[in-house]
């Protein structure tokens, strides 16, 4: 009996295939909007969290001004307006004083930078010329694809040696080796001694940078202050104490609080808070599309019930039970809903693949739980919006149904 109901439901859908196709497309568009937006948001959030989690719980970053002050972090996002970025007054001396005077600090890497042009074979390439120390690589968990990074001795001697980011190397040399080549930056010659492995990070572009010893960049670019200071604590459990000591040392140098300390876990907290809020707003907006798709199914099924009134009367006259009629029309509604959801799911895969092509930092996969939620939701929507038409079909008196023209 069940298979006969399913067969009759499919036959009914096929009889009104044009109308059914429109209902399916309505659900497909709604599912596409919801799944694609929620998946992109999920992948973006996970990518951010993985990047900052990968920096390690021992990392402490000093930023100029008050980009992430403690009040804003503790209260989530309600006090974002209290962020107060300002011109940097951080210095190389700040980083070195911290490394010398704070026993709990393992590594320290100041960073300065300016936009410049790298010349090779009479062609210019824009890049971010960045000065730092050898401690930067382990702090940011960056690896070398070729060659080596400059040493402390080369930093002290202000050697003109550079390490290229992945994009810079590809744009200038392509597949040819870069190590050993001589390039020109601001009319100064530099020897390429290394190439960094590709590293995608939101808000911090490593691949388009060229790294050199700190004081070399300071002199060539006339850069007075550091843009950021990176530190790594020796032990995770000592991070709060180390943070206070770093704050005290730099505070003594500056005489006023014109900087702030940021830990990876604090950034993660803010990211989660923002993403949760954006997720709720996105779901509320796209939920309207799902509602419209569900109403479309209900309207199609109501019209179908009216046009098949005589068929319903004949079935009841030959002994069909009310639950047979109910099951048939509910199955039709669920079939339309699930088919539309699956089409939307397939379209989402295509969209995510296209996004990943242009933005490789964003993953192109749909979480399995998202697929499961979609199927369950489609079944629920079919049952919900198909219930009214199905009940109307059940309540049609057999005699009146047989008289229907």
TrEMBL record:
GO terms for cellular component: plasma membrane. It is found in: Cell membrane. Residues 285-398 form the ABC3 transporter permease C-terminal domain. Keywords: Cell membrane, Membrane, Transmembrane, Transmembrane helix. It is a multi-pass membrane protein. Residues 20-248 form the MacB-like periplasmic core domain. It comes from the Bacteria. The chain crosses the membrane at residues 21-42, 277-304, 325-351, 371-394. Its main location: membrane. One of its GO terms (molecular function) is transmembrane transporter activity. Belongs to the ABC-4 integral membrane protein family. This is ABC transporter permease.
């Amino acid at each position: 009996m069940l298979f006969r109901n399913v067969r009759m439901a499919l036959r009914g859908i096929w009889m009104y295939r044009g109308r059914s196709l429109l209902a399916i497309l309505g659900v497909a568009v709604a599912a596409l909007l919801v799944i694609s937006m929620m998946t992109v948001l999920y992948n973006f959030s996970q990518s951010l969290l993985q990047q900052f989690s990968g920096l390690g719980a021992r990392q402490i970053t000093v930023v100029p001004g008050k980009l992430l002050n403690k009040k804003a972090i503790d209260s989530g996002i309600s006090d974002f307006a209290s962020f107060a970025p300002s011109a940097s007054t951080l210095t190389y001396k700040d980083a070195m004083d911290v490394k010398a005077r704070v026993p709990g600090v393992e590594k320290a890497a100041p960073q300065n930078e300016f936009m410049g042009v790298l010349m090779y074979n009479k062609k210019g390439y824009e890049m971010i010329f960045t000065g730092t120390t050898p401690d930067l690589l382990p702090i940011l968990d960056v690896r070398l694809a070729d060659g080596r990074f400059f040493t402390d001795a080369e930093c002290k001697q202000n050697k003109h040696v550079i390490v290229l980011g992945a994009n810079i190397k590809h744009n200038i040399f392509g597949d040819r080796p870069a190590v050993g080549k001589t390039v020109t930056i601001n009319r100064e010659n530099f020897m390429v001694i290394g190439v960094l492995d590709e590293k995608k990070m939101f808000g911090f572009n490593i691949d388009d940078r060229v790294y050199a010893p700190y004081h070399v960049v300071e002199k060539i670019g006339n850069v007075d202050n550091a843009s950021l200071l990176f530190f790594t604590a020796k032990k995770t459990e000592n991070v709060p104490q180390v943070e206070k000591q770093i704050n005290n040392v730099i505070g003594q140098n500056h005489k006023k609080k014109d900087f702030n300390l940021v830990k990876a876990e604090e950034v993660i907290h803010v990211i989660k808070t923002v993403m949760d809020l954006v997720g709720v707003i996105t779901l509320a907006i796209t939920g309207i599309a799902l509602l419209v798709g569900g109403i479309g199914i209900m309207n199609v099924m109501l019209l179908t019930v009216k046009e098949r009134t005589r068929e319903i009367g004949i079935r009841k006259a030959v002994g069909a039970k009310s639950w047979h009629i109910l099951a048939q029309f509910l199955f039709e509604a669920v079939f339309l809903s699930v088919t539309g959801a699956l089409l939307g799911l397939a379209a989402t895969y295509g969209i995510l693949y296209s996004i990943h092509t242009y933005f490789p930092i964003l993953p192109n996969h749909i979480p399995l739980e998202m697929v499961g939620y979609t199927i369950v939701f489609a079944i629920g929507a079919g049952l919900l919006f198909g219930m009214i038409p199905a009940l109307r079909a059940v309540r049609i008196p057999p005699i009146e149904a047989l008289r229907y023209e």
